[in-house]
Structure formats: C-alpha cells, structure tokens
Amino acid sequence: MSTTPARTVPDLDDPATDPFDVAHAAAEHIADVTGVPGHDVALVLGSGWGGAAELLGDVVAEIPTHEIPGFAKPSVLGHVATTRSIRVERPDGSVRHALVIGGRTHLYEGKGVRRVAHGVRTAAATGCTTVVLTNGCGGLHISWRPGQPVLIKDHLNLTATSPLEGGTFVDLTDLYTPRLRELAKQADPDLPEGVYAQFRGPHYESPAEVRMAGIMGADLVGMSTTLEAIAARHCGMEVLGISLVTNLAAGISPQPLSHEEVLEAGQKAGPRISDLLARIVKSL
C-alpha cells in the first residue's frame, strides 16, 4: 500500500531559506485543507475587528493558524488564532473567496520580521490580489473618540526595519490604494483618513514620542500593519488599511493606557465596524 509522503517545508527562520517558498507551502496546505484552490481577497483582523468574518458569508473551512506552515501561535490576548476560508456573494451575484487570517505575528513578539510578513505573502500565494489590513490603535485627534474607524492613507514606519531583504527596491507611492479607499467611502461617506505610524512596541508610546509622531504627520499610532503593507505591495497586491481608534494616544488621553482598554473599546465598536468592513469587502 502506497502512502503520500509528507510535504517538507523549509525553515522560515533559516537565512538560507527563501521566505516565498514557505509562503507557497502554506498556500498549498490551505488549498488542501479548505478544498478551495484559490482565494481572491485576504483580511488580517486586528483588535476589535474579529466579528467581521461572520458577516462576510459562508465559512467553507477553518484552520488553526499555527498548523499552517510558517505560522506561530499568537501570544497576545484578544487575537484570534483561526484562519478561515469564506465564500462571499457580491451584490452583482458573483462569488469570491476570502481568506481571513487570524493570529497575526507582531514585531514585538521577537519572532522576526519574516514571521510578520508571512501572512500577506501566504495570501498572495493563494491568489489574493487584494488585502485588507485592520488594527486597533491610538488616536492623536481629540475628535476621534474610541470606536472611530479611520482609513489609512499613508504611514510612517518607525520600526527601524523592513520586510524586504537585500537589494529589493519597492515604490510605496499610493501604497494604500486610492481606488479601494474610495470604495470604502461609498460604504461610509463619513470615514476620515489619516497617517498611521507604527512603533515596535510592546510598550505603549511615550507622550513625547506621540508628539514627535504628530509633528512628523501621524494621526494614528500602533504596533502593526506597515510592515505587512510593504510586503503586500512587494507581492503586487492592492492594500486597504483601516484603523479602529481604541484609545486616545499617550499625552492626549488623561487616563493611563492599558490593553484592557483596547479590548473593551473593540468589543463595544465590534458590531458596527464589522458590518462596515463586510460591506466594504463585498464591494471590492
């Protein structure tokens, strides 16, 4: 009796490994487990955004994210560790498949920038041409109260690193695709736009760092998204970024910051922003 040999997956942490080989191995695993040969749009759901997946359509399959080659178990409370394949029916009657990646890896977890970028590279390998990156963040504008979604129009990468290796030069002009931002505004004309600044974390930004970011042009501060967006652009994907203001940033908020505050704000805003995101994705 013959058996199919187990697939050998290159070690993502080995500098000699091409990270795109691991992404393709991950994509093959997803296709095998879900029975869906290809996906069209990917979503990375940050704090507060998890409920959107249930509104997108019918779940074809669920996979514990850490069982997919190259992924690790999330180490942060409130981050979902399940990746789902979802059948999405669009308003024109056509059908697409969304890949909802749960349990993103943050740079502050110390697992390396390759792990941070692995989710979007895997999405591209499954066939996705669009990725929606969401996060929970601190807001620099007093008028943006907790629960306010904001479209990302540009970013400041303050992590002192890049997901790109060697002489890989990628233009980031209009990284956050204007066409997708216009579609999002059709779903909610009142959506504001802002510049997102990513710090390394895991500590929250100091008041002085927040003031610095504001002087540099930031409207939002957080610990994710920009490295994934750069990797997605390198893969040729269109990018839509949406932040949920879960708290006023340090020095603007009169209260000390806490992760519990972030989770609470996300839970309160969850139903509204999940409905918004589902409507946006169906229109993409």
Short synopsis of the structure:
This protein has 284 residues and is an alpha/beta fold. It is built from 7 helices and 9 strands. Residues 1-5 have low confidence and may be disordered.
- Report Rg: 18 Å
> What is the CATH class name?
Alpha Beta
CATH superfamily: Nucleoside phosphorylase domain
State the CATH topology. Answer: Rossmann fold
According to DSSP, the number of beta strands is: 9
Describe this structure in words.
By secondary structure, the chain is an alpha/beta fold. It has one domain (19-283): Nucleoside phosphorylase domain (Rossmann fold, 3-Layer(aba) Sandwich), CATH 3.40.50. Helix content is 31%, strand content 23%. It contains 7 helices and 9 strands. The chain has helices at residues 19-34, 52-56, 113-125, 178-187, 207-215, 226-234, 259-283, and strands at residues 41-44, 58-64, 82-89, 95-101, 130-139, 148-157, 193-198, 220-222, 238-248. The chain has a 5-stranded mixed β-barrel with strand order 5-8-7-6-9, surrounded by 5 helices. The longest helix is centred in the last third of the chain and has 25 residues, at 259-283. It is globular and about 55 Å long. The model is unreliable at 1-5 (pLDDT under 50).
